[in-house]
Specification:
The chain is α+β, with helices and mostly antiparallel strands. It has five helices and seven strands. The strands form two sheets. A five-stranded antiparallel beta sheet has the order 1-2-3-4-5, with no helix packed on it. The longest helix has 39 residues. It is extended.
């Protein structure tokens, strides 16, 4: 090999490396643009710097919940939508990185302060049937306020559009699972009510190419052969953290009828 050929070969290596660098930069730029579009153009992603949006108040007050841990460490992974993006920082296991690891949830959050004006209610009650006002005696009551919040959390497992994601998977995750929590705070009292919804927890699907696609059971083997899902009854994560759940007897001879949409 001549000196000229060596120089040419070296130049080709530089060009190859330069092309790889440009391709990597283009890919990273595209990813950043997609992330900015996803989080800035959508109104359904939320985060909090000091409150765990991924976990209901009931679970936050359970003995297993670590109140003093960093947010990302105590977050419910079912609703931790950006966890996969933070894996490298999580693997560092460095307390200095905790500030940058904020869980993002997809769903809906709204908080309102409501006023209870007892004097206004009493005035309405004092109106006579003829429309005349007859003031009643008694101490004046100051208005009181309470806060009401709605938090809907959509699971990041088996999320998808209608008719494309149905049923349950081998890990027990239901398609399009959503947990909706209503919180009422009337100091010093706080009450919470949680509702959950999801696709019917069996292995089924719909083609999605028809106006009214018929449901179809997908698993040929008996449901008892799926130990991650069936242990004499449903062990789906959808049932966890919500008190007692009714057991589904998979040995029952009765058939399960699937509706046109669920």
């Amino acid at each position: 090999m001549t000196a000229g050929e060596k120089i040419k070969s070296a130049a080709e290596n530089v060009k190859s490396k330069k092309k790889e660098t440009k391709d990597k930069e283009k890919f990273e730029k595209r990813i950043m643009e997609e992330l900015l579009k996803m989080f800035n153009d959508s109104e359904f992603f939320y985060y909090s710097e000091n409150f765990d949006l991924t976990t209901s108040l009931q679970r936050q007050h359970s003995p297993e919940y670590e109140q003093d841990a960093a947010l990302w460490r105590r977050a419910d992974t079912r609703f931790f939508w950006n966890r996969h993006m933070l894996e490298e920082l999580i693997h560092l296991d460095d307390p200095l990185a905790d500030h940058w690891l904020l869980p993002i949830v997809q769903g809906y959050v709204q908080m309102e302060t409501c006023l209870m004006d007892f004097e206004e209610d009493k005035t309405a009650a004092d109106m006579s049937s003829s429309g005349e006002f007859s003031p009643s005696s008694g101490p004046k009551l100051d208005p009181l306020s309470y806060n009401i919040s709605i938090v809907s959390r959509r699971s990041c497992h088996r999320a998808g559009t209608r008719s494309r994601k149905r049923g349950i998977d081998s890990d027990g995750a239901c398609a399009n699972y959503v947990e909706t929590e209503q919180i009422i705070e009337f100091s010093p009292h706080i009450v919470s009510f949680v509702q959950v919804r999801g696709s019917i927890p069996v292995f089924w699907s719909q083609s999605g190419f028809k106006y009214r696609p018929p449901p179809r059971l997908d698993r040929a083997q008996p449901l008892e052969q799926s130990p991650n899902v069936w242990e004499g009854g449903i062990s789906s994560p959808a049932c966890l953290g919500h008190g007692d759940s009714a057991r589904f007897d998979v040995s029952s001879s009765s058939s399960l009828l699937l509706p046109q949409g669920a």
